[in-house]
Specification:
- With about 475 residues, this protein is α/β, with parallel strands linked by helices.
- It folds into two domains: about 160 residues, 3-Layer(aba) Sandwich (Rossmann fold); about 250 residues, Dihydrodipicolinate Reductase, domain 2, CATH 3.30.360.
- It is about 30% helix and about 20% strand.
- It contains 14 helices and 18 strands.
- Strands 7, 8, 9, 10, 11, 12, 13, 14, 15, 16, 17 and 18 form a twelve-stranded mixed sheet that branches. A six-stranded parallel sheet has the order 3-2-1-4-5-6, sandwiched between helices.
Length: about 475
């Protein structure tokens, strides 16, 4: 390549990467000490990982891994046509054995996140792991313990933590500019259509190694129409939209609150309403995390604003609350903050007049690579502990839902009315369901128990069924190891 040194510096700045003047460059513009990166999982978020690393000056993409041979080879061939040769792997165990890899970047389904991260660290690699960093609370804590015990740099894929706009808004609120926080609210109003109803198990494509795809999950028939993506809506592999899109907004809400433990009390209500399919997770949900400072209330809506839009896939048909659909609203004594996207935050006073706004974001992947090079964990924007805690409060909310019972609306109200902000949130949910033609007498909501947790030990108090769901039974050969404190 004929790119000049000055052009490289300019390109590095535009891409959000870092460039060290003192580094020497190879002929392709990479720093001679560039970190060798492998991406695990090349569908979904995987292509974003590939795109980010291949253009960084201090990172070199050297390998890809996926259990689907066809998908893997397509990505490898596409890169080769662009002049980049990477080594393909179908088995992550073979990948992490390689001495020619420094960093593992994980974009697998949720049920693989924790085990893949720990295995990689045990093999001496630093790790970027997508959100949620865990499939359950216990294994997420093991990833944190592994990172600390093994001295590894581990970033979670909570990209909002690299948003300068949200970071500045959090600091502005914490400085007392709008009074105390009364409620931190997260929203995931995101259209989710039926995934269909099957009559027989999925015929897994021949190019997929099913044993590797399942990993820690039970070896049993899969009942859904497609292997990819729709695993989000089944408990054996995913965590619903609360742990999919919603974990980003959960993380932002917890960030504003400054809470660094799971909440001592949590409950959830909701249901999978409007259709019957192979999905198990709720498409309609309220999660209440009773933090001492202020409650964190989360809302999931997968149905549109009204029944007439039921066939639409357009997110423009979704509800908004105070200017946000997929975002956060932080209610304060002197007004509120709206976070409508990953790169913007707006402050309003009590009269609804705009007080201040922030815009901008940095490269989350570049922040990770910089931290790996400097070995400064504190420079990470989203250290694994942050990822664990935000995933954990998604899990505790889902545990309450999974242990719930079908309950009438008036009986639900009796339970939740003493929780600040819960009644108003529930009333809006009922209006939303009415607009969608949902008959709650025919398909009642599920009311989960009010669960108590010890925030220090992350254990359930007085509820053996909840304790059981804090972890899972792992399949032989794919057991998440206990890493100690």
């Amino acid at each position: 390549m004929t790119t000049t040194r000055r052009q490289l510096i300019k390109q590095s700045a535009l891409l959000g990467g870092s460039f060290f003047i003192g580094q020497s460059l190879t002929s392709c513009g990479k720093a001679s000490n560039a970190l060798r990166v492998a991406v695990v999982g090349v569908r979904g978020r995987g292509p974003e990982h590939i795109k980010a690393y291949r253009w960084m000056k201090n990172a070199k993409l050297v390998a890809l891994c996926d259990v689907n041979k066809v998908t893997l080879n397509k990505q490898v061939d596409a890169l080769k046509k662009d002049g980049l040769e990477v080594k393909p792997y179908t088995d992550i165990r073979k990948l992490i054995e390689s001495k020619d890899i420094d960093v593992i970047s994980i974009a697998t389904p949720n049920h693989w996140h924790s085990l893949a991260a720990i295995w990689a660290m045990q093999a001496g690699k630093d790790v970027y792991v997508e959100k949620p960093v865990s499939h359950n609370v216990w294994e997420g804590r093991q990833v944190v313990n592994a990172a600390r015990k093994l001295g590894k740099i581990v970033q979670t894929g909570s990209q909002c933590r690299s948003s300068s706009s949200i970071r500045d808004a959090v600091a502005w609120v914490n400085a007392g500019n709008i009074g105390k926080i009364e409620i931190a609210r997260g929203l995931c109003y995101k259209r989710r259509n039926s995934i269909g109803k099957t009559t027989k198990p999925l015929a897994v494509p021949a190019e997929v190694d099913l044993d590797l795809w399942l990993g820690p999950a039970p070896k049993e028939d899969i009942h859904r129409k497609q292997l990819d993506y729709d695993w989000h809506w089944q408990w054996a592999y995913g965590n619903g939209d609360l742990g999919n899109q919603g974990v980003h907004q959960m993380d932002i809400a917890r960030w504003f609150l400054g809470e660094n433990e799971i909440a001592p009390k949590a409950w959830s209500i909701g249901g999978r309403l409007g259709y019957e399919d192979d999905g198990e997770t709720p498409n309609t949900q309220i999660v209440y995390q009773a933090y001492a400072k202020a409650p964190l209330i989360f809302e999931v809506r997968g149905l549109p604003s009204k029944k007439e839009d039921a066939e639409s896939k357009d997110d423009k048909t979704m509800d908004k609350f105070m200017g946000a659909g997929i975002g956060c609203v932080i209610h304060c004594e002197g007004g509120h903050i709206v976070v409508p996207s990953y790169t913007e935050a707006i402050a309003y006073d009590k009269a609804g007049e705009k007080m201040k706004s922030w815009k901008g974001s940095d490269s989350h992947f570049a922040n990770f690579i910089d931290a790996v090079q400097t070995r400064k964990r504190e420079s990470l924007n989203a250290d694994i502990l942050e990822g664990h805690l935000s995933a954990a409060i998604c899990h505790t909310g889902n545990i309450s839902y999974r242990l719930g019972e079908k309950t009438g609306a008036e009986d639900i109200r009796k339970v939740i009315d003493s929780s600040p902000g819960a009644g108003e949130t529930f009333d809006r949910l009922l209006k939303h369901l009415e607009a969608n033609g949902i008959d709650l007498k025919a398909t009642p909501l599920t009311m989960g128990p009010v669960l108590q947790f010890d925030p220090k030990t992350e254990k359930a108090i007085g509820n053996p069924a909840a304790s059981k769901l804090l972890t899972r039974e792992y399949r032989a050969g794919y057991v998440v190891p206990e890493m100690g404190a």
